Amino acid sequence: MRGLWTTARVRSAEERVLAVTPPGALMRRAAFGVASVALELLGGRRRVGLLVGAGNNGGDALWAGHHLRRRGVAVFAVLLAPERAHPEGLAAFRRAGGRVVAELPPVDLVVDGIVGLSARGPLRPDAAEHVARLDAPVLAVDLPSGVDPDTGAVDGPHVRAHTTVTFGCLKPVHALADCGDVRLVDLGLGPELGGPDLVELELDDVGAAWPVPGPEDDKYTQGVTGVAAGSATYPGAAVLSTGAAVLATSGMVRYAGAAADHVRARWPEAVCTGSTTDAGRVQSWVVGPGLGTGLSAEAVLRGVLEAGVPVCADADAITMLANNPDLWDARDPGTPLVLTPHDREYERLLGPVGPDRVAAARRAADRFDAVVLLKGHTTVIAGPDGRTLVNRARSSWAATAGSGDVLSGVLGALLAAGLDPVLAAGCAARAHVLAAELAADGAPVPASVLLAALPDAIRAVRPL
Ligand SMILES: NC(=O)C1=CN([C@@H]2O[C@H](COP(=O)(O)OP(=O)(O)OC[C@H]3O[C@@H](n4cnc5c(N)ncnc54)[C@H](OP(=O)(O)O)[C@@H]3O)[C@@H](O)[C@H]2O)[C@@H](O)CC1
Ligand SMILES: Nc1ncnc2c1ncn2[C@@H]1O[C@H](COP(=O)(O)OP(=O)(O)O)[C@@H](O)[C@H]1O
Ligand SMILES: [K+]
C-alpha cells in the first residue's frame, strides 16, 4: 500500500520538522536526493540544465546544481524570476561554478525546479516557452511543474517528467498524474504525517486480499455472485460481466436475465435463468450492464436493491437511479452498495466530475452513502467512511467497449466472497488494469480478450 498526503498535510508536518531542524537542512537533503538521481540518469554524461522558479522548488534545483558541479558536471541555470531566485541556493550554485544563462544550451538532462507544492494552474508563458523548447529528458523536483499537486489536474502547459524526485512523502499528484518514475527522499516527516489522505493498492495488497478457496470450501461457501445484466439488444454485456465473475473467483455464478441463452452458450458453468425472481440465493448482485432503462429493468434493479446482499450497480443501473430517484428507497440501508460510474454516468447523478476526481468521488460517496468507483484512466474509489483509493492505468487500452462490464463482474465476485467493499473495488480496479496490460501488450485489446487475461492477472498478484 502506498500512502499519499495532500499539500496541506505535508505543510503542517514540514512545519513541525522544520522547527527542530537547522535552517536549510531539509532543502539540502532534498537537493542531494535530486543530484543523486540526476547522476544516475546521466550515466556518465556531463551536461545538465536547470529551470529555476521563484520559490523553494527552484532552491532545490539550485542546490542540486551545486552538488552536480562538485561532481564535475557542467550545469546551466535559467532563472525565471532572477530577482527572487533562492538567495543561498543561487550563491552556492555560482560558487561551485554553475552558469546562469538566458536560454539552456544543449544538455543531457533538465532539472525542473520551476514550481512545486505551492503552485496552482498551468505554467506561465515564460516558463512554458522554455519547457516547449526542451528535448532532453526531464527530472522533476517534487512534481512536474504545471500539474496540480493535490488533484493531478492539467489545464495547459506543463512539464512531462521522465522521473520525479519527491520529498518526505508521496503527494496525490504522484498517483493521479503522469510523473514518470517517482523516487522518494526521506526527510523524517513520517512521525508527523498521520494517516494518508489517499491510498494506492500495490499488487501484493491485491494478491493478499484475493479470495482463495480452502479445504473446507465448496461452491456455495465462497459466495455466489448474481449477475442481472444484458438484454435482447445487449446480450454481450451479460456474457462479459458473467464471464468476469466466473473467472475472478472460484465458487458459483448465477445469471438472471434476457441473455440467458447467450450466457449459457459461452459460460456453461454459470447457472442461468430468465429472471432475477427465480435466480436462487446469491451473496452479491451485479446489476446494470446492458440491462436497459425501461420499466422491466427498473423492476429488476428494485428487486436487487431490496435483496439484502451487497450490490454493484453499474451502467444502466446508474442511469435509472439518476432518472428515477425513488429507486434509492428500495435500497436495503444496511447492505453495501458500490456504484461504478464513468464520467458521463457520474454527471447524470451529480453534475460534472470537474478537475478534482477525488473530490468528485467523495462527494458521491457521501451523498449516496455508497462506495463510488469513478472509472477512467485514473480510477478513484471513495467509501462513505472517507477512505479513498486511487488506481492509475499504465496504458489506455482498457478504454474499449465492454471493458466496464468486465470490471463489474470482477467486483461483484469479490463482493460475493465477502471482501470489504472499498477493498473489493480497489482490487477489482487493479486486477482490471493488470489484465488490460497483459492482454494488450502494446496492441489494441477487445474486452473479451481483456477478460480472458484475468486468470493471468490473478496469478501475477497472488503470493508465490
Ligand atoms: N517546506 C520544506 O520544508 C521543503 C520544501 N521543499 C521544496 O519547496 C517546494 C515548495 O516551495 P514554495 O512553497 O516556496 O513554492 P514553489 O512551489 O517553489 O513555488 C511557488 C512560487 O512559484 C510561483 N508560481 C506559482 N504558480 C506558478 C505557475 N503556475 N507558473 C509559474 N510560477 C508559479 C509563485 O510566485 P508568484 O505567484 O509570486 O509569482 C511562487 O513564488 C516544494 O515543492 C519542494 O520542492 C524542499 O526543499 C524540501 C523542504
Ligand atoms: N483512458 C483510459 N485508460 C485506461 N483505462 C480506461 C480509460 N478509459 C476508460 N478506462 C477503463 O475502461 C473501463 C471502461 O468502462 P465503461 O466506460 O463502463 O465501458 P463499457 O460501458 O463499454 O463497458 C473502466 O474500467 C475504465 O476505468
Ligand atoms: K517542479
Describe, in plain words, how this protein is organized in 3D:
This protein is of the alpha/beta class and 464 residues long. The chain has two domains: 195 residues, YjeF N-terminal domain (Rossmann fold, 3-Layer(aba) Sandwich), CATH 3.40.50; 259 residues, UDP-N-acetylmuramoyl-L-alanine:D-glutamate ligase, CATH 3.40.1190. It has 18 helices and 18 strands. The strands form three sheets. It has a nine-stranded mixed sheet, sandwiched between helices. A seven-stranded parallel sheet has the order 4-3-2-5-6-7-8, covered by helices on one side. Helix 2 packs across helix 3, helix 8 crosses helix 16 and helix 12 runs parallel beside helix 13. The longest helix is centred in the last third of the chain and has 20 residues. The chain is elongated and about 80 Å long. The two termini are 18 Å apart. The structure holds ligand NPW, adenosine-5'-diphosphate and potassium ion. The site of potassium ion has 11 residues, from strand 5 and strand 6.
